Amino acid sequence: MIPISYYLILSGILFSLGIIAFFVKKDLITMFMSIEIMLNSANLAFIVFSRSHLSINGQIIVFFVITLAAAEACLGLAIILLIFREMKTIKSEEINLMKG
Amino acid sequence: MYYFIFLLLSVAAIGGVIGMIISRNQAHNALFLALSFVSLGGLYALLNASFIAAIQIIIYAGAIIVLFLFVIMIINLKKGIPPERKKWIPYLAALLGVIFLFLIVYPIISNLLFLKYQNGELRSSPLSLGHTLFSQYLYPFEITSLLIIIALVGAVVLLKRKDRK
Lengths: 100, 165
Description:
The complex is a heterodimer. Chain A is mainly α. Helices cover 77% and strands 0% of the residues of chain A. Chain A has three helices and no strands. In chain A, helix 1 (4-24) runs antiparallel to helix 2 (28-52) and helix 2 (28-52) packs antiparallel against helix 3. The mean pLDDT of chain B is 87. Chains A and B meet through helix 1, helix 2 and helix 3 of A and helix 1, helix 2, helix 3, helix 4 and helix 5 of B.
């Protein structure tokens, strides 16, 4: 069997890459994709602990997280479309209504 | 053999995310993300979670990526995102990411490196998952259905055009 720590380190690497992608990218859609990556890395850790403790509850939490991510993608993309319709841009540095 | 599959899938998952960071085309970004999600589904299947692997591929790599691609096609920026002016922001983000990686990986290496699997077999067939979902987790399941309805209605209300008078 593959050691648990390999999976946990992979999950940590994916989470860090998600954070890097969130801060490097400038368009809202790709920033939104990096949030999905961070959710997935947490899911991986849940599945690994579910396997190691022989408990099915971790998989049920992952089920709920995937459902939540679908709802979140639906609403987030609606908000992005609304921003594009109002401002004609999706670059995060040009959306500065609250900058003063 | 298991190690080889694990190495292949994890390299595909990390490579998909790195490709997403490097590429500037948004449609390519979505496809790199699909590669990463599919390989994560393979990892779930390797961990004896077959149902979760199936819905990972169906919902994430199927539904959510297609939703992203639809929005990218609707917005349809012709010349892509121009390179950003402030050059120091990627380096700062990389530094932040490395600090975060250290903060996550160092406790794992120092404490959890030799964590063992418990003996026995995990009964994770869709049947037992459904039994647990509809007995122990019945109320969270119903609340999740309410959440999805709220998200759908919210998206429709947000995107409805106000009639101009």
